């Protein structure tokens, strides 16, 4: 049996008052899988896991929020 390994990296930012963004990428590999030693080979293991921009308008008690992107 082969073992799967997953690594995620996240970048989040507060862009403006009430506006934030998040980007997560993921790399999934299987131990024991033959890899290409070529430096110019394309990696199909890395992809977008989650990414969105969120905007909230209003006070904390009466806030309105919207998110756009992949969750």
Q: Can I get a quick summary?
A:
The protein is mainly beta. It has strands spanning 4-16, 19-30, 46-57, 64-70.
Describe the model.
With 71 residues, this protein is mainly beta. Helices cover 0% and strands 62% of the residues. It contains no helices and four strands. It has a four-stranded antiparallel beta sheet, with no helix packed on it. The model has no long low-confidence stretch (mean pLDDT 76).
Strand content: over 45%
Mean pLDDT: 76
DSSP summary, beta strand count: 4
Q: Helix segment count?
A: 0
Distance between the termini: 31 Å
Radius of gyration: 18 Å
Morphology call? rod-shaped
Structural class: mainly beta
Trace the largest sheet across and list its strands. Answer: 1-2-3-4
> Could you name the ranges where pLDDT drops below 50 across 5 or more consecutive residues?
none
Order of helices and strands: EEEE
Biggest sheet, in brief?
4 strands, antiparallel
Give the helix proportion (percent range): under 10%
């Amino acid at each position: 049996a082969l073992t799967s390994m997953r690594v995620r990296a996240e970048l989040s930012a507060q862009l403006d008052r009430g506006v934030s963004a998040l980007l997560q990428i993921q790399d999934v590999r299987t131990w024991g899988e033959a890899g290409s030693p070529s430096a110019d080979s394309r990696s199909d293991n890395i992809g977008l896991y989650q990414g969105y921009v969120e905007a909230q308008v209003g006070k904390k008690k009466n806030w309105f929020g919207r998110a756009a992107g992949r969750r």
